[in-house]
Every structure is written in C-alpha cells, then in structure tokens.
Amino acid sequence: MTLFDHTAVWQAAEPYMRFRRNDVHIPVVYHYANKLAAMHPDCDQEVVTLGALLHDIGWAAVDQEELFATAFKKLVTDVRIQHEKEGARMAREILEDLKLVPAAKIDEICKIIDGHDTRLEAISLNDSLVKDADKLWRFSAVGISISSEWLHLSPAKYIYKVENEREGFLFTDGAKQLGAESLAEAKALLKTAEIG
Ligand SMILES: [Fe+2]
Ligand SMILES: [Fe+2]
C-alpha cells in the first residue's frame, strides 16, 4: 500500500540506493512509513513518506570503507553524522528540483533527515513516525537477515537485541503494534526457536 505516487522521487534517488543495501532498506522503511502514516491521522503523510524515502540516501556520499569499519560500532560516528547531513542536502536538491511539495514541507523533511539516527528524541509526530519506520526494518525478516550479518550475529541473537535493548525502541503505538506483528512473523519464518 502506498499513499502517493512517488515514482519521480524514486527515479531521482535511484543512483543513491546502491550503498549499504539501501536498495532493500529504503523500500522496506518506505513500506512501514506508508502503513504508519495511514494509522496516524494527525501526521503529515507526505512528509512522513518522503522523509522515509529519502532518509538514507546520504550513505552514498560517505566513504564506504569507513562506513563498514565504524558505522556499526557505536551510534554517533563521523560517517553517521555525515550521512545525515549529506542526506538532508541531497534530499533538498531532489525535492526542490521536482517541485512536488511546498518549501515548508521540504524544510521539515530535511530537518527530519538531519539527525534521524543520532538524535534520540523525536522533534514532532512526523519525525517520530519516520524514526519508527526506519527502526521497524529491524523487526522484519529481511531487515533481521541483513542487519544480523552486519553485526556478525545469528538472526535469533539479533532479535534478542531488538526485543531487549535500545535497538528496538519505538515511539508510536502504531509502530509498536506493527513491530510485534512483524517480529512474530519473522521468528516463525526464520525458526529462531529451533535455530538459536
Ligand atoms: Fe540512517
Ligand atoms: Fe535507515
């Protein structure tokens, strides 16, 4: 289910999707953002879904070796901050060029992207929904599969982190509901009770 036709934005962002499995991560986050936006009538659905679509394109602008050497070790690293800042700059370029949404929405989307990983608190409902959509990736079988490999953990051990540590912290009720459903599905699919 998608709320808007964002074909032109996907086309503009496509060159930046070939880094850090963004070609899987971004569609999954976008899927959750659409679901969350539909569940929260007070949000701005365009801001939430476009924020999700463009939130990680900045990974294309950072040193790829440094990314994999440092980005998974701790929350705040130079490359992590750089992917947020570059992502906000690149998103602005794409959105100003396409003229799909007014300037105030572009400003809000870029504000959400700048700090989406390293800012632990949410600055608005729209921000909290983008953060939750990003995080819900870790509750999906595909996200568990890729993220567990990045962290050199078995899927079951990665799921333990999501369930018991900050890895799985979610802001909104909608995300908590979706997260519980996705995680139950992933556990059954990946047989994590049988394979530890
Ligand atoms: Fe990110
Ligand atoms: Fe992300």
**Proportion in β-strands:** under 5%
Shape: globular
Give the H and E element order.
HHHHHHHHHH
Number of domains: 1
Number of helices: 10
- Rounded to the nearest angstrom, the distance between the terminal CA atoms is 33 Å
**Which second-level CATH architecture applies?**
Orthogonal Bundle
CATH topology: Hypothetical protein af1432
Describe this structure in words.
With 196 residues, the protein is mainly alpha-helical. It has a single domain, classed as Hypothetical protein af1432 (Orthogonal Bundle), CATH 1.10.3210.50. It is built from ten helices and no strands. It has helices at 7-13, 22-39, 45-54, 64-70, 78-98, 103-113, 125-136, 141-150, 155-164, 173-190. Helix 2 (22-39) crosses helix 7 (125-136). The mean pLDDT is 95. One fe (ii) ion binds at residues 55-56, 83, 116-117.
Secondary structure: elements and pairs:
Elements: H1 7-13, H2 22-39, H3 45-54, H4 64-70, H5 78-98, H6 103-113, H7 125-136, H8 141-150, H9 155-164, H10 173-190
Helix pairs in contact: 1-5, 2-3, 2-7, 3-6, 3-7, 5-6, 7-10, 8-9
Bound molecules: fe (ii) ion (FE2) (2 copies).
